Amino acid sequence: MPKALITGITGQDGSYLTEFLLAKGYEVHGIVRRSSSIARERIDHVRVDEHHPSARLFLHYGDLADSSSLGNVLAEVQPDEVYNLAAQSHVRVSFDNPEYTADVTGLGALRVLEAVRRVVPKSRFYQASSSEMFGGVQNEAQSESTPFHPRSPYAVAKVYAYWQTVNYREAYGMHASNGILFNHESPRRGESFVTRKVTLAAARIKMGLQDTLFLGNLDSRRDWGFAGDYVEAMWMMLQQEKADDFVIATGETHSIRELLDVAFGRLDLDWKAYVKIDPRYFRPSEVDFLLGDPSKARKAFGWTPKVTFKQLIEMMTDADLKLAERELRAKSRA
Questions:
Q1: 100, 135, 312, 329: most buried, per Cβ within 10 A?
Q2: pTM for this one?
């Protein structure tokens, strides 16, 4: 039975990847930070008591800021594949916490790579790279050969992690790949990210729980896909004979206005009656346009996205409507 170790297992991508690998017959191990409470709601539906004979999902305490904990977990688990998905991943927050972002998102990846090199050098390694690394590129599709121009502390940290992954592949012969994933969303997306912020607000407005949605740049355009599709690409990269770097994207770009059209339209609402622009949500340096060219991944291992932009936003809106309905019922009982 193959073994996989996932950092960031309790996040959106970690939960979908866990489901995918369990369905493939893997034994899955995840690293979680030790704290007073661990947010496990995204993986609770697939968890089995670790002492039960049928258990194939195991959690371990560790931290990307602590090299020794990473080495200890790798030595215990001896994974065949390591997926580094953990990061401080919110772009706007990275401007407020640049040092923390650099430590966890940038140096954290280096710590995982070095621990893999020392403890399990034959393991295959996946680094979660980001389209934000392209940053300032305008009006053209971004591919693996597009120069990076990071425009946030988060993006700068991701560029550092990307090149460390390339360096470990070339210097030590490790099977280490970068997945340059463009924006990927789902009902499990954090509520501070714009797609989820919009779908949740639309649902709460429909239920009378909210009357205004504050946003920043409505003309910003992104290449949005479904996280459940993208984790399959992560796995496919590590099944290749040679490690390499791949852009994972839909090849389509949509604006925040289009996002609002689909989400509010799903609920028969006119978003223009509820959305207000708030300068606080503008970034110090904006990334106005991101569009990925996934042709290399399609040619190399046949990956293509299955869920369309409209299907994705409607899926998220429907899920958030159920949450809003539950919130309304809870208020009525209180």
A1: 312
A2: 0.91
Q: What is the CATH number of the domain that holds 263?
A: 3.90.25.10
Q: What is the CATH number of the domain that holds 91?
A: 3.40.50.720
Q: Which domain holds residue 37?
A: 3-185+224-248
DSSP 8-state class, residue 172: H
Catalytic residue among 126, 154, 162, 168: 154
Q: Classify residue 113: in a domain, yes or no.
A: yes
3-state secondary structure of 170: helix
132 vs 41, more confident: 132
Active site residue 130: yes
Q: Which residue among 19, 27, 81, 132 is the active-site one?
A: 132
Known catalytic membership, residue 140: no
Whole-angstrom distance, CA of residue 19 vs CA of residue 190:
18
pLDDT tens, 213-222?
999 889 989 9
Percent of the chain whose pLDDT exceeds 90:
79
| Catalytic option among 15, 94, 130, 220 | 130
Q: Which residues pair with 28 in a beta bridge?
A: 4, 57
